[in-house]
User: Fold this.
Amino acid sequence: MRFLIPIFAVLFIWACNGGGPSETSTTATTASASLENRKLENPNITVNVNGLPAGGEAILIGFFADQRFKADSTMVGANGQMLFQRAEPYNPGFYFLLMPNNSAVQMLIDADQSFTMTTQLNDLVGSMAVDGSLDNELLYSNLKFEAQLQPQFQQIGQQLQ
Assistant:
């Protein structure tokens, strides 16, 4: 009897663990395998911000869960042009381009890492034009739509208070 209790305890623990990889680890393994199988191109990202003075460092900041990390940086060139090129692709995800004047441009980076974004310093979202990235075109279409609805949301918020 005294030997059966430890055997049952081991069997219980083994049964609760499933005796193999969990569904979560299988899903994570599958997701990372599919990410590795995708061909990520080397970045050639140009961001033009008309009205942004030349000089100063622009920083590409990536997000992963609740963490932020510096993915890359470049100097602001003439006519507010910032070019991000390197031999290694960026990890797909959501990024902010923090400019020297502390304003920021949002962007999505996926497998296709060659695109151009052009905007005006005084209206970063409203005047954004994207060429070569459907993800970013859709992102800015959505941001422009949200900006149109913002006055209605503010009015409703004031009425609720």
Q: What stands out?
A: Residues 18-30 have pLDDT under 50 and may be disordered.
